[in-house]
Amino acid sequence: MKFWDSFLTWLKIKKKEANILIVGLDNSGKSTVVQYFQSGGKRTEVTVPTIGFKVEKFQNAGLTLTAFDMSGQSKYRSLWERYYSDCHGVIFVIDSSDTMRMAVASNELLLMIQHPEMVKNRSTTTTGVPILILANKSDLQVAIPIGQIRAELGLDEINTHPIHLEASNALTGVGLHAGLEWLSDQIIKLNF
Question: Which domains does the chain have, with CATH numbers?
């Protein structure tokens, strides 16, 4: 069946589809990231915090992405793991100006990376699910420098997942396209 799916995709009869999770602490900018991609870069004035999760679709690099925008409030974070088994990639959004909760974001990232569903055999590789980390609000004067974020999240010690850290601003789109291109390439390389 895998051969047949690959053959149809190669003939462009079957479209490449992937599920991505968009996670991170509350108020990090997850919904704003989704709105940016879904609207084609048009700015939305009002962003309502996500309760539970929302599902949105958008296109990138020949992929149809189904994005599960998960709430980052502490009482909803346990829902994230219910979607790990079917995800092809993760966008982990952090608020790079929130110095007080960087340790909490680091802990949530570590819990996610260590979950068995995130490192299971994917296609023909044993690589874990690719993770794009968006250091959102990086344009603010109080934002933590990207090198310090890399160190605080311990990204250099993680070797079980392809990981990319990108400075971003979800309101203007800075860093979003480059990050999504990286994630799309990883998803295609590992799954199709």
Answer: 16-191 (3.40.50.300)
